[in-house]
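Researcher: Re-running this chain for the archive, since the previous output was lost when a drive failed. Same request as before.
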Amino acid sequence: WREDLGLFDTLWGYANRLDGLPEAQGIVTLGHALIADTMGDAPGVLAALDSLDIDDVAPYWRPTVTWLRATSELALGFPGAARRHAELAVSQASPALRGALTMLEVNALELCGDYDRAGEALLRMLAELERSGNDHTRGVGYGIAAARAAFSGDVDKAEHLLLLARECGGTSPLPSLVATLRLSEAGTAIAGGDEDTAARLLAEAVAGH
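Model: Regenerated structure tokens:
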């Protein structure tokens, strides 16, 4: 969750020490799913999760398992399935996680064409993120909301939300917030008629990937 791939790689190197511990197999399997997710391998995520016995992980991890399944289903073009699992993940989540997991629910609802419910989920997401106290996820949430405002043509609202997102990121925003900001800034630029700036921001967002 800290988006520190170097640390993740180091810690994952110790996973083989858990091979003989039955109580650790659920977490190891979840680790395989997280690696696949980091690599953008949606089928690999689902394959790992399909091999997971949900009783092998503590209840705390179950919203994450459900959320990972939903993200992969959405990536593979199954918004209806993703919507069901995203809504389940949100219902399972603790207050600290609920806002962050609702981001996926917003995307799934929109891709299902249920824009009214998506708008309601977006407002609920922002309220939950405010309560969570996590500046990073608040920033990503504001960025998502800014993109929606831009798509609806409300450039002033989009720019205000982008300002809030940047404030949450501080001087060293995590990579996912940087990507969210660039995409939202590009959408806002398009809404304002500045396609050259939008093209530059989109190129920066995908550079190196």
